[in-house]
Design a protein that fits this description.
By secondary structure, the chain is α/β, with parallel strands linked by helices. 35% of the residues lie in helices and 19% in strands. The chain is built from nine helices and eight strands. Strands 3-1-2-4-5-6-7-8 form an eight-stranded mixed beta sheet. Strand 5, helix 4 and strand 6 form a beta-alpha-beta unit. Helix 2 packs across helix 3 and helix 7 packs parallel to helix 9. The N and C termini lie far apart (43 Å). The structure holds iron/sulfur cluster. The site of iron/sulfur cluster has 11 residues, from loops.
Length: 281
């Protein structure tokens, strides 16, 4: 911790997660990074944003972590893939940031959401931050792709009020193509959450030609309905707001020609989830 520079030039608060942020943690030594991951004393954060109404119930303060093991073709925030693109933030500072908003969040029946990137890349930091948040009496949410869900012990899951679980596709080969990783761990985590009666909001990014297949949606809808703990499904229409990040990071963006889904397509997919007995938004 002593190796950390105390005065970061950039505010923790960003106007939106679409703000490009790179190499903010590049001067942190490897030993500090390793210790941070082991203890959770330090987290790597892209930013905090306030006022979100879509990342959990009520008005949310969202902490965007950096680091992700997926490489989704449609990722809107590829600057969060590399953990060291985030700012090294001592746990106490992150807790103090949340404390500033505690009163307002409670009045507005909101809470704190950890999103990313993939928060569970920094599972120790994340669980300590969510535990401190809960101790303040604030509602907690974790937005995750679920791949590293086994890193959390059962009693640690109790610190999370809602899991926003991203399921990308039903088919294993398509999942590998879309994300570079297997789907199995995500589905294992989904089942574990169901066994523990943990409330889940399922998130499904709808990308024309990639995730709009009727059978794909139907399989996920049946699976989610069967779990019994999925309170709602958020169908998130693909957009191109993250494209400039791919360009600035010199990444090979394959979706230049993909348009956001037409309203009729969004309605068809929402209808499929509703037909399985699920609420959609
Ligand atoms: S899981 Fe999320 S942050 Fe990670 S690559 Fe996919 S869309 Fe991007």
């Amino acid at each position: 911790m002593s190796e950390l520079k105390s005065a970061e030039p950039l505010s923790l608060e960003a106007s939106s997660p679409f703000e490009l942020r790179v190499e903010l943690g590049k001067d942190v030594s490897e030993s500090v990074v390793k210790q941070a991951l082991r203890t959770g004393d330090i987290g790597f954060l892209h930013s905090f944003t306030t006022g979100s109404a879509v990342d959990g119930p009520g008005v949310r303060l969202v902490a965007w972590t950096s680091g992700c093991q997926f490489r989704c073709l449609y990722c809107h925030n590829p600057d969060t893939w590399n953990m060291l693109n985030g700012m090294a933030v001592p746990l106490e500072r992150a807790i103090a940031e949340i404390r500033k908003y505690a009163h307002g969040l409670k009045i507005m029946a909101g809470g704190v959401t950890l999103s990313g990137g993939e928060p569970l890349m920094q599972d120790r930091f994340v669980i300590r931050l969510l535990t401190a948040t809960k101790e303040m009496g604030i509602h907690t949410a974790l937005d995750t792709n679920g791949y590293l869900g086994q890193r959390l012990a059962d009693e640690e899951l109790d610190q999370i009020d809602i899991v926003l679980l991203d399921i990308k596709t039903w088919y294993p080969s398509r999942h590998r193509y879309l994300t570079g990783k297997e789907i199995g761990p995500t589905l294992d985590f989904a089942r574990r959450l169901a066994q523990r009666h943990k409330t889940v909001w399922l998130r499904y990014v709808l990308v024309p030609t990639l995730t709009d297949d009727e059978n794909d949606v139907r399989q996920i809808a049946m699976y989610a309905a069967d779990l019994g703990n999925v309170e709602r499904v958020d169908v998130l229409p693909f957009h191109q707001m993250g494209r400039y990040k791919w360009e600035r990071l010199n990444l090979d963006y394959k979706l230049n020609d993909v348009q956001p889904p037409a309203p009729e397509l969004v309605e068809r997919v929402c209808g499929q989830f509703r037909a399985a007995g699920l609420k959609t938004y």
